[in-house]
Design a protein that fits this description.
The chain is mainly beta. It has two helices and eleven strands, in the order ααβββββββββββ. The protein is globular.
Length: 160
């Protein structure tokens, strides 16, 4: 007779993020350690509460940079920050809990953001200055904050 596994499962529920493995892109938690994106290539990733994912793509002036994200499971409650050359903040989500509506705290006129929970997300950036553009993804806090939440997603970037 085997022992029940419920104590281990209960521990995993209490330490939710600790029971899931980081994706192969880690460490990519800072702008200095950002994962380089190749236009048109899909990246599969997981973001954890308190462990952001940062991506970088170089774009020439006069083009449009497009980031598309789709959900692959998990809580699907991300918070986004988009930086342009010189670390200029082009887009920043309002801080909040998962139940708060998706809205920007700061948004440059060059950025169009669309989508939402369950339907995916898209950012279109009119590239004024050639250089590196960074996308930072963080799983939002939960109202009870007892569990560390995570989100599995697919990311594709294009330069049009």
């Amino acid at each position: 007779m085997t022992k029940p596994r419920w104590p281990l499962l209960a521990l995993c529920l209490l330490l939710a993020a600790g029971c899931r493995k980081d994706d192969a892109l880690e460490p990519n938690d800072t702008f200095e350690s950002a994962t380089l994106l190749t236009p048109g290539s899909e990246r599969l990733a997981s973001v954890f509460q308190n462990s952001p994912d940062v991506f970088v793509l170089e774009a020439p002036a006069g083009k449009t940079l497009v980031f598309k994200l789709s959900s692959r499971g998990g809580e699907d409650c991300p918070e986004f920050t988009l930086l342009g050359p010189g670390e200029k903040t082009l887009y920043e989500d309002a801080e909040g809990f998962c139940s708060d509506p998706w809205k920007a705290r700061k948004k440059d006129a060059s950025v169009q953001a669309s989508g939402g929970r369950g339907s995916g997300y898209e950012f279109r950036v009119g590239v004024k200055d050639a250089g590196k553009y960074y996308l930072r993804i963080q799983e939002r806090r939960q109202a009870d904050n007892m569990l560390g939440y995570s989100w599995d997603y697919a990311l594709t970037a294009q330069v049009e």
